[in-house]
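Notes to self after the call with IL:
- keep both proteins in one doc
- input above output, always
- annotate only the second one for now

Protein 1:
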Amino acid sequence: MAFILRRPYAVTGALRHAPKVSQSTFRLFHQTPLKSKPTSFFSRRSAGPISSFFAGRNVMQNVFRRSYNQQSSSMPRAGTGNLSQRLIYGGAIFGATLLAINIVFNRETREDGGMPPFERAYLNDTFLHTGLGIGIIGVAARQLHMSGWSYRLMAANPWLVLGLGLVGSIGTMIATRATPPENYVAKYGLWTAFNLTQAALLAPLMFMQPAILARAGLYTVGMMGSIAFVGATAKQEKYLYLGGPLLAGVAIVALSGLAPLVIPATAARTLMWTENIWLYGGLAVFGGFTLYDVQKVLYHARMAERGLMKKDTVNESISLELDFLNIFIRMVQILGMSGNRRR
């Protein structure tokens, strides 16, 4: 639900930082060669030194243009780094983040000697459904974008997008949670409908460069993976108290996301602050939600083992999917802004 409360054009707002299409492929009218006209008696008399002068100048221009093109083509393109080097950098970032968060937040580990097998299986099954849901969203968003859905969505009324997005997302999410796990056909069908609704809202992200989307996905997996490790190895129910403060924080983030629809464009400083709250405050809030949701999954696993509630990993995965999507969207926008500044 926290994912739905963001502003309706938060996804398309990140597209402002996408690179524009170069106009160098279009020929202007003055670049076409002039047709040769028959010269008169007077022009023929004075054409000798002038035509030789222009001919020499054209030769020099062609020489310099050819040398410049050869030098530019031989230069390496920006961003074509070594793939193995990028993977090493990504692994180093993930390891350093994991170590830092583990040192700061996980000084008190579990007292039961480790995670019991039932909790481990329950958590792994939840992560499996989370990854499957993210995969469905990614594939469906790509297909919708290729069919032209993104253009129609961006051209629609933002309030209409907000209303339909709320109805579709919240409706399918509530229906999925309300369906018992024994009725697995209806439950998985509603869960798939929920993922398709998220894909329809996130399809405009495909306008961004694939490199930015890949980096944002890598950073999101690293951030959520390190926080999930801390939540899984910390003391039982240590971070469950974060539920109330995180709900207050997500309300503030949601209001800051809706601010551009209400605040006039002349209040540039206020809009800048609301944008920073939505970006960086949202990263902190949904990072905390990841920690809270992982410990909630383990708490529900212990209750299911005692027979106090039913085992339902589909419901558990919805919360982690929303955490992933909210962090991923902000990573995409931050990387797009940083790439725009470098130009």
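Protein 2 (the one to annotate):
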Amino acid sequence: MSPPNPSSSPTSSTVDGGVVATATSFRYDAESAVLSWCCPPPEAPGAVSDGAVIAVVREEGDDMVTDGDGGESYTLLYMDAAGGFQSRALSAPPPSFLDAHPPIPRSPPAHLRLRPSRLGRPNMHILISALSGTGAAVGFYATALRPLLEYLRVAPSSYCAYTTTSASTVAELGRSVFLPAAQRGEHQTLILLAGDGGVCDLVNVLNPAVTTAGYTPPTLSLHPLGTGNALATSLAPPTDADQTFALSTLLHGHPHPLPLLRTTFSPGASLQALHHSPTPLLPPLSPDGTRTMYATVLLSAALHATLVSDSDTPTYRAHGLSRFRLAAEKLLFPDPPDTIPHAYKARITTYPPLSPHHSNNNNNNNNKTNQPPHPFPSLTHSYILATQVPRLEKTFTISPASRPLDGRLWLVRFGPMAGEETMRLVQRTYAGGKHVDDSAVTYEEIEGLRIDFEEEEERWRKVCVDGAIVVVEEGGWAEVWRDQRSTVDVLVNPQSLSLPTTTAT
């Protein structure tokens, strides 16, 4: 049975002697968003969904394929079912397909055409986090990213590829390579095959305290290959069906400033060594006796922080994203049966958001001292999370009012309840964030949040910062504040998020 409302177009190609022969017939079904083709034997027919399309490239000069009618020539770049890069000639494809995928030039975008460093080394870097998630980054680089760069004629000498060997690799490269180049004012592109932890590593090296007058923010291209990919996921529309792991954004995207969160801890706070997680070390004590980390996604305590910590074992990590669900079930339904989940004891203080007329870009903590504190009435909690992104997973909408890159901070909190009730609220996050409509949930925009822990057992005094776990000392505290100073840019497809286009240099 033919698909409904398809458009079709034959494709031809030149053969020996200049004879033009019909080779392939294309059909595009806009309703199912699938391009299919039939080929002369022995080649088998094929199809590709819109979500697997990386780009349609307009060929020029010697790269053009003759179609016999003088029409334009294109190449389809896409991901195959095995997750590898593929290309296919397209001569006179269906117009409706080109409407869905506006062609781009053959030449790479500006962020893939960078001048080398003054020291003679490339300013494009690929960070392959072999320890993130289920370890898929190495294979993705070999079968998808590197072949795409070869097709674009990006010479291997124009970039450096690094495979992480430890949890500190990204931070070490940041200090030794990326930060000095940024301080020299050089444009850099960092292609990150990792999760949220890799971004956290970078922004804690490239943080506001180290920027100089000539500092040029590196451009990040995020490819979600970690366990936690909240930032990359939130930079795409909620209905996005991307199967290219953001290779489409690498070609279509434009850089936009990435807002930061500033998290601060009491002097005795320490970083928990997670299993193979790319987590930054807590900086030394500040003059005021505190410790500071920067984040781009969230700070959490209580249930969320505990399950992230508990699930970071080789056994849990083998389950990918499911590790969080498995750990949550143990926390919510502890042994023996009918035991109530732990009620986390802490004093919470929120600070209302600054008015739009008061910028905190200089952020010398004035946003804290100028805002009246609002002590939270309850001293026991189940869930405490402050975030500036809408989704923690593709369909897990934790903060439905959040918009990518707007820099607004939102609190999600609810109190102690039975495991079944907690699971009911969690399930509503998968319905577009309907949990925030529940009377048990506090959901509000804030400028900052302070948590004073009143737990004796260390297990319940943990804080999650973009996947890194900080253990707060007994009687200690944690804070998170909006910090609109951006030290890195991130590639975003402006068409998918209705963002203004900026021009890279």
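Annotation: The mean pLDDT is 86. The longest helix spans residues 137-151.
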